[in-house]
Specification:
The complex is a heterodimer of chains A (472) and B (311).
Chain A (H helix, E strand, L loop, with lengths): L21 H8 L3 H18 L18 E8 L1 H25 L4 H4 L5 H5 L21 E3 L1 E6 L2 E6 L8 H14 L1 H6 L8 H10 L11 E4 L8 H11 L2 E3 L4 E4 L2 E6 L2 E5 L1 E4 L3 H4 L15 H6 L4 E3 L16 H9 L6 E2 L3 E2 L3 H9 L4 E5 L8 E3 L5 H13 L4 E5 L5 E6 L2 E10 L1 E4 L3 E3 L4 E5 L13 E8 L3
Parallel strand pairs in A: 1-22, 4-12, 5-6, 5-10, 10-11
Antiparallel strand pairs in A: 2-19, 3-4, 7-8, 8-9, 13-16, 14-15, 14-16, 17-18, 18-21, 19-20, 21-22
Helix pairs in contact in A: 3-12
Chain B lengths: L2 H31 L8 H10 L5 H8 L4 H10 L7 H14 L6 H15 L3 H7 L1 H22 L4 H29 L8 H13 L3 H8 L5 H10 L7 H16 L3 H15 L2 H7 L1 H23 L4
Amino acid sequence: MDLANAFDEMRGLNDGVRNAYKGYFDWLAGTPMEKLIEKHQHADLIFRRLGITFAVYGSDAGLERLIPFDVIPRILDAEEWKMVAGGVCQRIRAINAFLDDIYHEQHILKAGRIPPPLVLNNPAFRPEVLGLDLPRQIYVHVAGVDVVRVSADEFYVLEDNVRVPSGVSYMLENREAMMRLFPELFSGISVAPINHYSDLLLRTLRTAAPGGTVDPTVVVLTPGHFNSAYFEHAFLATQMGVDLVEGQDLFVEDDAVFMRTTEGPRRVDVIYRRIDDDYIDPLAFDAGSALGIPGLLSVVRNGNVGLCNAIGTGIADDKAIYTFVPDMIDFYLAEKPILKNVPTYRLSEPDDCRYVLDNLEELVVKEVAGSGGYGMLVGPRSTADERFQFRNKILAQPNNFIAQPTLNLSTCPTLVDGDVQPRHVDLRPYVLTGETTTVVPGGLTRVALRQGSLVVNSSQGGGTKDTWVLES
Amino acid sequence: MLGRTANNVYWMARYVERAENMARLLASTYHMSLLPANRSGKENDDWEAPLQLVVDRSDFLERYGVVTAGTVLPFMALDGDNQMSILSAIRMARENARATRTELTTEVWEGINQTYIEIEGMSYAKMVDQGFREFFDWVRDRSHLFRGAIYGTMRRGDAFAFARLGTFIERADNTARFLAIKWEMLTPTGRPLLAEDYFRWGALLRAFSALKAYREVYSTIIEPRRVAELLLLRRDMPRSLYACSAETVDILQSLRGQAPCTRTAVQIAERLQRSRIDGILRSGLPRFLNNHVARSNELHSMIGREFMLVL
């Protein structure tokens, strides 16, 4: 894509200074480049010392790496945030209603709003939880909705991420680092605080406890310290003051879940699991999984333990079902969608497929089941050879793919090679649903550090920024 | 507290203590090797001592060939393939800390992570360049910082107890092993002590930070018998077997007074309390020490089974 024609978060489309950046722009103009670079290096030291690292799969040398952190914040003013916050919360409310519906009465299928096979034959649909009544009918307690911007008032949602979204620890640590590096900025500019996230999360998780539990015991379930997001699991458990457990620490007995402690078994009421459905119970799902807890599903089904997120949420963030979220908003909430969906071509449809194959240079093609930026083709940035290979993959299994027009993501000034340059960004706010659906003001801003690149995933060389929402 | 977590905290502390004691042993060996080379061949004997702690000595001989300061030091300090090296111990300590960082305060975690980052950036060339003593002092300081951070910042709960337990179990084990290795090398048979011997015994006491204490307690010249008494039986010497055993008993009693492992710990401590140094020396110090190491291992396994669900 075209950096020059992209909407810039600081400068807009011409060389003005947008409202959100008024205070910061003056500070940046008055700050020598050397100082910025020095702070940048200092930030690296802080992150390494704190051990804020992630593991990169498939790279043998560095088991742990830092996600590059950029010291220039991404800033939204109160008006812009109101729209984003309202939009993401609206989607998650609709998605929770959708999940409760398709695991019970399936009104939306009966009304013909979504073709039934798309849901019922989908591997992410879990018949195991049909008819299961959850506390407050909530399936998605934590969501990380990926939002991108293309102009002053146009935001699109790329994905809803309602399985096991990650990255919130970076949102929190980025803010910590910024306050440590630039305290003077925070006294001059009123940035909405976000560090109550962990308290909100704990409160949210407690609402998932089996009915009538007094003072529920909550745990965070991690695949273990070799997992790429282990830092985050440990971070959240520490912040909430709850135990961080692995599958081997839990067991099922008398239709309840217990953890093995130094003082004997202790009952667990809510599991904030950071493990996918497939691995969570070897008796019910992937039998080869050593990460899960045998028998967990039956305890869940009997309502004796709460799982966050619930089993079966994956059906709502399937890339094919994604296209129906605006319909869900209309069907369940009778509201107009606040944020746009990216127009999506389903390659299972012959017409769509033909169009996509004829226009590969213009489109982004994604694997339906892919994530993390793996297995995708960015048309305008691809070579003829890459397009040829993708064409063959599509023809072999068209059902596996969707395609979307390439959005010209907004850019944000970023420190690159000793200079401030525009780089494309996205935004992932974290939506919590307990007694109500809320979102802390901000989120994780990811930035594609390579010039012109639109892929912001950390596994693909992306970095992160602190995200500021101005209070007024 | 989770049994697995208790196990991680315990091993984290054991590995830090092991790194420190290995640095102490190497520092004192280095110190002894600085004697004027009036008795050639003795230097290499000194460097045999640390190798006695290694499980697979043939691995060392294959990769390094001869036993000298220039081979044993890089092998025991910085060789990641040697499980007994300081580097390996710090790596393992950090790995255990990482697996259980929710139980640690920021100070404890950051301290251990920083130690790991710094030693990963260390090379033998740098060690030679800055001086061996500097390196060993650094390892010891990092261990002091670790214990200090635990003592000064952690809630007196299970994690604190298991970290302290790991420290004292490992320390007692290391003190016993090192003394067993050094004792025979340092004890002359059938001749009075020479100036050189005093130098060596002094270096040994210094390895346990006990030279000053020896002077205070005995106010006399160094006698091997008294060195042994100081390092085995004195309750007021923080690195002695008796002191470590008594601490272990206190911790286990606070955790679970009636547990079988607690009873075993009490028996070990009582045996040390009852023993007199002359009796121990009559039946042989190495035998006594080996027996102590075996009993400590048994205690370690019982703690694993009873608290950490280790099979």
